[in-house]
Amino acid sequence: MTKKTKRPSWATRFLAITRYELLWNIRKKKILGVLVLAFAFATLALALPVVLKNLNNQPIEPNPDYVITTGTGVGSFGFFLFALVSVMNSISGEFESGSIVPLLTKPVSRTTIYLGKISAAFLTVLGAYSLLIIYMAAGGYVIYGPQNNLHLIFITLLGSIMSTLVWMSIVLAAGSVSKSSMLAALLGIGVWFGLNIASGILSVFSNQTWIATYAPGSGASGTFGTPGPINQINVTTGSVSTGTDSIATNLISYILHPTINVTFYRMEITGIGQGQGPGGIIQVPLNTEPLSLIVARSIAVAAVYILVFNFIAWYALKRAQVAE
Description:
Layout: H1 10-27, H2 30-55, H3 66-70, H4 75-87, H5 92-97, H6 100-104, H7 110-144, H8 153-178, H9 181-205, E1 221-226, E2 235-241, H10 247-256, E3 261-270, E4 280-290, H11 291-319
Antiparallel strand pairs: 1-2, 1-3, 3-4
Helix pairs in contact: 1-7, 2-4, 2-7, 4-7, 4-8, 7-8, 8-9, 8-10, 8-11, 10-11
């Protein structure tokens, strides 16, 4: 009597794919590259202000909010680079190397393969950002003294990962559709640069800054303030970017200052050619929004991009024809 082989559970197959992808990343030295990149950005964020102050013979003043306001220290470009390195060839690399054929012969659905790959990329970024935040917290304490609100570091971690997931989804979709790691990288770089340039132009010169708030990246820029003395204007205390790359920073600002409003401006050149002497640049206020709205909208926009581009990537893998 032939004994039936028990089919592995879905969880077992999923974990096997995740482990396979993590090992793939290790072989390609992608994880090492991500970690080196992480600490390079973090060290620069910590050391550069100290170096500049020393060059100008200025003392380093205590800053108890440094860690919570700096976050991971990698910024928008860092989020994009982490996304690019993590998923650039997760799917396209399988087609390019031909390893997709033996992978699909396993008793694992393409959906499970996709979920395993995206989970491995998530774990890679989670590990890198966790080390980054610990490093930034230790460095901030040494350089700027005791830090406040360190219990909010978890919010920084979650917000930074969500910002990175937006770019991961875009790059992953490009790779799945094109089946080319080079095209995925070039398209991702082009989208990142193009959106950031367009957002900057819209934020400075256009009346339609709201357009930038619905695009991935930095979004529009505004300022917020706290009430000043009676009969005096508000005192500006910071700036806000409305894009998906600023989710962590805006969440922290909202938790610490839940009632603040953000005002958006455009730049206008005056006086030139109007007989008014030398031209000047003035800020023209456009609109004001509560920070709570900006935070909620950026999270919703990020969620939509993550879902849409992951669906595109999954569908491309699901429908891909593989020649044995």
